[in-house]
């Protein structure tokens, strides 16, 4: 039987050769085009893997679209591959690619060159699109309706508690869903949820500049599992008893089981602690897949260096040199910890969810993580060697517990270790405490002063420079008292330096945004800090709480952002 089959095939091929050997190539080409355009009646042809369909698609990809006719064929072939319909206008120069939720209008010149491409959703006017996002041509009608309803709910939430004079920065840092930018054409809806103090000041000093904080895109993606997604807006017009947004129940009339879920997508993988990831998964009820646990600080360092274009500089020692004006150079040792601890983390690229009610809480978690990451990354720089052998101040940054970390350093006037513990309670609240050996002199920096300084600049190096400046003033006053044998006049030393910090100075590696009293800092012993020394500090370390008068605190709170900007521009 097999021999007979081979003989029959050979005979058939010989007849084909004889039939077409006298025909010109142009007729053969027309026949191929005709076969590609003609609907195939065999059911098996609907299978994407069928040999005939694959062969036809391969021929279409091989043919160069050098004319209007071939370009139309190319567009129609692509439409079929994506499961879309297509037809040509009576003029023969416009191709319409249609589905039950949108259509694309492609206008062509007579030589086949594309003049324009427009995208129109149901009930909307066509919009000129420079980029047509791939997922739009693969998304089903119900998935698009679900995305539309989500976008409407997010927009409605962005209007809650919103005043007419609210600015973008306030929305970014305090809005329930951050600063929301609706979808336009092929660009998805995006949410800006965090912006640093340095970026805020940069925007104030450069009106019209495009200073952007951390953003996420809002989209929908197909999955292998069914998820109940809303097909109409769910936000209730009346808020809940606690004042938070209230939502209608997700009934069968308002939702449908779809093989898809919503996504918050990061532009770059975002380092998150394992506890933050678990909290988000609890809120959304969906596991974030594809995560690889690693020490959180290691991920933050790698991500920061990648943003600076220097990711190849990461070493196991994690030693970085930070230069600041009017200060000795800082050397930071970052203790990355272990991947098995609570301070382990992972790089997150997208967060799946199915209901709009979880978005505000997820945004707040992301803000909190971003504030924590910003403080750690402020100690990271592209420089990992002391090129000029200049004077150094040594610091070690180590995880403490939960949302806090410790910064160890040598006391400016003694040989003992000192420590500042920084606890990032929320994205808007930071609590700090300074710990010294009880026998060491004060550094004249209260916990409140350090906390306000951190909140103002979100930069560890700038805050540590302020502490050393205050300590230098204490030492200078002590020497003056010994020399003159007279009591110094009452003065509030913290106010002078706090004013220098309340101008929102730059993060590490940037030039100071405000130049204040330029005083040199006394030499510090050039000695590496170690974990062993940190442990030796142990129970002998107690909290330093210098007395701060009510007048001092009142004067501190009177500083405003307007005064900050004026001081910056004056010094520039």
Automatic annotation (TrEMBL):
Pfam families: Med1. GO terms for biological process: cellular response to thyroid hormone stimulus; positive regulation of transcription by RNA polymerase II. It is found in: Nucleus. The keyword Nucleus applies. GO terms for molecular function: nuclear retinoic acid receptor binding; nuclear thyroid hormone receptor binding; nuclear vitamin D receptor binding; transcription coregulator activity. One of its GO terms (cellular component) is mediator complex. Residues 517-533 have a biased composition (Polar residues). Signal peptide: none annotated. Keywords: Activator, Nucleus, Transcription, Transcription regulation. Residues 516-547 are annotated as: Disordered. InterPro entries: Mediator_complex_subunit_1, Mediator_Med1. Residues 136-380 form the Mediator complex subunit Med1 domain. Its main location: nucleus. Belongs to the Mediator complex subunit 1 family. Component of the Mediator complex, a coactivator involved in the regulated transcription of nearly all RNA polymerase II-dependent genes. Mediator functions as a bridge to convey information from gene-specific regulatory proteins to the basal RNA polymerase II transcription machinery. Mediator is recruited to promoters by direct interactions with regulatory proteins and serves as a scaffold for the assembly of a functional preinitiation complex with RNA polymerase II and the general transcription factors. This is Mediator of RNA polymerase II transcription subunit 1. It comes from Anas platyrhynchos platyrhynchos.
